[in-house]
C-alpha cells in the first residue's frame, strides 16, 4: 500500500499494487477526477502492441516468401522426382509442389520413368511437366534425355 501526496493541494491518494482504492477523488487544483494509472491496463496495451507487431512481421515474411517461390506441377501419369539445390521431392500425378530457391535461377532435375529432364527456372515461375517435356510459364524448355 502506498500514499501519494499532491503537494499543491494537499490531496492524498491511497493505492495498492498500482490500483487506486475507492472512488477517484476530485483534484482541487485542476477540477478533474484523478486516479493512479492502472498497471495491468498499461501492460495489456504493451502486450497488445507487441502482438500486433509480431503478427504484422509474420504476414510480411509469409507474403515475401510466397512471392519468391516457384511452383512445379506434375501433368504426367507417373510420379516425378524433382531435385533442385538441396531440395528433393516426389510429386504425384496431378499434384504440385512449391520450391523457394536460395540462389535463383535454379536448374530443376526432373526424373520420370526412362527419362531425365533438366529444366531451368527462376522465382515466381510456373513449371509444368507433361509427357517428356518441361514447360516454364507455358514455354517448352529443357530437352529430355533417355535414362539407362
Explained architecture:
20% of the residues lie in helices and 43% in strands. With 148 residues, the chain is an alpha+beta fold. The N and C termini lie far apart (85 Å). The mean pLDDT is 78.
Describe the secondary structure blueprint for this structure.
Elements: E1 2-5, E2 12-16, E3 19-20, E4 25-27, E5 32-34, H1 39-67, E6 70-74, E7 80-84, E8 87-91, E9 96-99, E10 106-112, E11 115-121, E12 126-130, E13 133-136, E14 139-141, E15 145-146
Parallel strand pairs: 6-12
Antiparallel strand pairs: 1-2, 2-3, 4-5, 6-9, 7-8, 7-10, 10-11, 11-15, 12-13, 13-14
Summarize the structure.
This protein has 1 helix and 15 strands, in the order E-E-E-E-E-H-E-E-E-E-E-E-E-E-E-E. The protein is α+β, with helices and mostly antiparallel strands and 148 residues long. A hairpin with a 2-residue loop joins strand 2 (12-16) and strand 3.
What fraction of residues sit in β-strands?
35-45%
Q: Which stretches of 5+ consecutive residues score pLDDT under 50?
A: none
Strands, total number: 15
Structural class computed from helices and strand pairing:
alpha+beta
**Count of helical regions:** 1
Order of helices and strands: EEEEEHEEEEEEEEEE
Q: Which of globular, elongated, flat, extended, rod-shaped describes the shape? A: rod-shaped
Helix coverage percent of residues? 10-25%
